[in-house]
Amino acid sequence: MADPTIIIYHYPYSPYARRVVWYLILRGIPYSQCVQPPMMPRPDVSQLGISYRRIPILSIGRDVYLDTRLQIPKLEALFPEIPRLGATESDQLAVERLLSLFTNDTGLFGKAVQLLPTDLPLLQDPAYYRDRADFIGGNLSPEGMNAARPEALGAVIRALDLLETTLLADGRDWILKTARPSLADIEAVWPFHWLLGLPGALPKDHFSPAVYPRVYAWIQRFQDAVSTAKKQMGKPATLKGDQAVQAILQAPFNENEAAVDGKDAVVVAQGLQRGDLIRVWPTDTGSSGRDEGRLVGIDTREVVYEAGEGDHMVRVHAPRHGFRVKKVVDEAAKL
C-alpha cells in the first residue's frame, strides 16, 4: 500500500509510546496522533471494537497493531525508499534483539515504575492506583512503592552499570557504532530516558553524569537527535476519536489477509480454523483488556483477527510473544 495512513493512539509521557514516536520521527515517517487519557476508560479505542488497554495502539491503514514489539517491525518493513533504523548484519541484529529483551522482558520497567516519586500530581489521585492495580493484576499503593524502592534502585543500578561498562565503554556515540541513532539505541534507551526525565525518581548520589558519564552523554545525544529530527518533520496532526476512526475505516488494509498455520501448536491443540471466534489478551500486564474477534490468520509471530463488523471492521494484529490466544467454544452464549 502506497503512503499508508498512520495513526498512533497514545499519551505523550507513556515510555512505551515514545518508542514508536521516536522511531517515526527518526526515520521521518509522517503520522497523526489520537491523544488518550493515561487511565481507563478510553472511548476512542473502544470505537475500534478493541478492549485492549495498553498504550500505544498503532493503525497502519485499516490494520491495527498492538504492542511495540510488533509495531516497530511492521513500520520497519514499510517505506523501502527511506533508510531503515534496524540492523542488517547478524551480529548487530542479535544485539538489537537482546536489548529489546533486556528492556521489555526482564522486569526492568516494572522496577523503574517503582521509582516514581509518590508526590507526582498523578499519583495523588486514588483512581491512579485502582487503574494500575487492574493493569498489573495486583495491589498498588504509595506505601508499597516506597517499600519496593531499595530493590528497584538496585535493579536500575545494575542495568546502568551494564551499559556504562560494556556497550558504551569504548566511548562510541551509538550502540552499534552507526552514524546516527539506530533501532538498537531505541531498544536500549527508553526506560532510562524516561527515568532521568522524572525529578526525584533517582537519587543524585547514585545517578549522575559523574557516576555514569557515558550513559548520560548517550541519552543526551539521543534526545538532541530526536529534537532535531522533530523540528525538521513538524508537528503531527492531532485527531479526535471520531476523526481517527473515520480515517482508519476509510483506508485500505495495509496487509493482505494472513493464513492460518496448520502446524502451529496452539492451532493444533485448539483445532483453530479461519473464522473461529477467539479471545486474545496479553499475559503480563493489562490482561484484563481482552479482545474477541474472528480469526483471520495465525503463525509463530502474530495472530490476526477481525474486530467490529461490516463497514466498522478492522483487522487487529497482536504478537504471539506475551499474548494468549483462546478459542471461544460456546459461541451461542456470546450471541
Automatic annotation (TrEMBL):
GST N-terminal domain segment(s): 9-81
Superkingdom: Eukaryota
InterPro entries: DUF7962 (IPR058268), Glutathione-S-Trfase_C_sf (IPR036282), Glutathione_S-Trfase_N (IPR004045), Thioredoxin-like_sf (IPR036249)
Signal peptide start-end: none
Domain DUF7962 residue range list: 111-231
UniProt xrefs under SUPFAM superfamilies: GST C-terminal domain-like, Thioredoxin-like
Gene3D superfamilies attached to this UniProt entry: 1.20.1050.10, 3.40.30.110
Name assigned to this protein: GST N-terminal domain-containing protein
